[in-house]
């Protein structure tokens, strides 16, 4: 697997890129009656438009990024797993037919990317975010079953997750946003020579952007919206590394994120 395309070979320095993405369109926002018969109403899958959006976003990343994605980490919620599956097909398509809008008839090269499930990327676990009065007695995430929904040959289940189980219920928004930042940083540090894609939830994008851009509040994150931080990583001969701070590298409104100066909110 190739390392980042942005490498200074003479001094052991390279740029590590990460992409933090929201999942695609969830079925309960397209079909309101879905929830009335759902066995797991807190875990809606993608609607068909969400699959199309996710696949096309993967294709867009493949065509427009000037660096490869090496590794993907994904929230265990089904809408995120399905989004990751479609994005992987868009990223890794072999002889991609531009008329295809989902992964159904797409052949991929599974050697191009590896994917792992990370509980720490899950939705913020509180009543407002989840629409639940209490947490389920058992979230019921079967990792093996979820991995089977991802493209064959891409799953790397040898990666030790940052969160080995779901976070505690009724965390605050601040606690959830802090969790997202912790997980993104920990996994970036675990794989410093690779570019990473995180498929997660809208609050994660807001957390990342607000932490990296002073006086910035995110007030809207579209389905499959994303942000692209990067940092410089320097590798030493003894195998250790040092890393600079992440910074946002592109205009956010190109990628479905709406934001404004925090100072304007009090006017």
UniProtKB/TrEMBL annotation:
Q: Which InterPro entries match?
A: His_Pase_superF_clade-1, His_PPase_superfam, Phosphatase_SH3-domain, PRIB5
Protein name per UniProt: Phosphoglycerate mutase family protein
Task: Please give the organism.
Answer: Papaver nudicaule
């Amino acid at each position: 697997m190739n390392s980042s395309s942005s490498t200074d070979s003479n001094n052991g320095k390279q740029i590590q890129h990460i992409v933090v993405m929201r999942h695609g369109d969830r079925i309960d926002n397209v079909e309101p009656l879905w929830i009335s018969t759902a066995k797991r109403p807190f875990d809606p899958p993608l609607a068909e438009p969400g699959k199309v959006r996710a696949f096309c976003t993967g294709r867009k990343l493949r065509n427009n990024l000037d660096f490869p994605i090496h590794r993907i980490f994904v929230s265990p919620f089904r809408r995120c797993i399905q989004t990751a599956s479609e994005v992987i097909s868009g990223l890794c398509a072999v002889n991609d037919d531009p008329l295809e809008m989902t992964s159904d008839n797409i052949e991929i090269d599974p050697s191009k990317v590896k994917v792992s499930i990370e509980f720490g990327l899950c939705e913020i676990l509180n009543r407002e975010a989840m629409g639940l009065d209490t947490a389920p007695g058992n979230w019921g995430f079967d990792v093996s079953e979820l991995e089977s929904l991802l493209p064959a040959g891409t799953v790397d289940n040898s990666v030790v997750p940052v969160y080995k189980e779901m976070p505690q219920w009724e965390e605050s928004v601040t606690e959830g946003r802090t969790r997202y930042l912790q997980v993104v940083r920990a996994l970036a540090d675990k794989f410093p020579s690779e570019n990473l894609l995180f498929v997660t939830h809208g609050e994660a994008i807001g957390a990342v952007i607000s932490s990296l851009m002073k006086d910035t509040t995110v007030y809207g994150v579209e389905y499959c919206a994303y942000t692209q931080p990067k940092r410089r990583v320097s590798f030493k001969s003894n195998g250790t590394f040092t890393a600079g701070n992440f910074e946002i590298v592109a205009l956010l409104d190109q990628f479905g994120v709406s934001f404004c100066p925090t100072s304007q909110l009090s006017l």
